[in-house]
Specification:
Elements lengths: L7 H24 L2 H5 L1 E3 H8 L3 H9 L6 E3 L2 E5 H11 L4
Antiparallel strand pairs: 1-3, 2-3
Organism: gut metagenome
Protein name: Helix-turn-helix domain-containing protein
InterPro entries: DNA-bd_dom_put_sf, HTH_17
Length: 93
């Protein structure tokens, strides 16, 4: 094991910088909380909510009836967009 000596001022400065870095990480993690991420659903969950097939969901996207976001090959929907579609197409008796 090797022991490295440091001046007290340099050590304290390093600790302060490390704490500032950790504070920034905490703020970033708070901004990407599960609540924010949980607002997005994938094809499978959208199909279950709407009770439709993958092909029907594709048609809804193609015709612009449901908004979506595509990251590479994965498609995501905002829960609120799915709910808007349901509300718009709900038959009231």
């Amino acid at each position: 094991m090797e022991i490295i000596g440091m001046e007290a001022n340099a050590y304290e400065k390093s600790i302060r910088e490390l704490n500032q870095f950790l504070d920034r990480i905490d703020r970033l993690l708070e901004s990407t909380s599960p609540k924010a991420i949980g607002e997005w659903i994938d094809n499978q969950e959208a199909c279950l909510i709407l009770n439709v097939s993958l092909r029907t969901l594709q048609n809804l996207r193609d015709t612009g009836q449901i908004a979506y976001t595509q990251l590479e090959r994965k498609v995501y929907y905002k829960r609120e967009d799915i709910q808007k579609y349901i509300d718009k197409h709900c038959v009231k008796r």
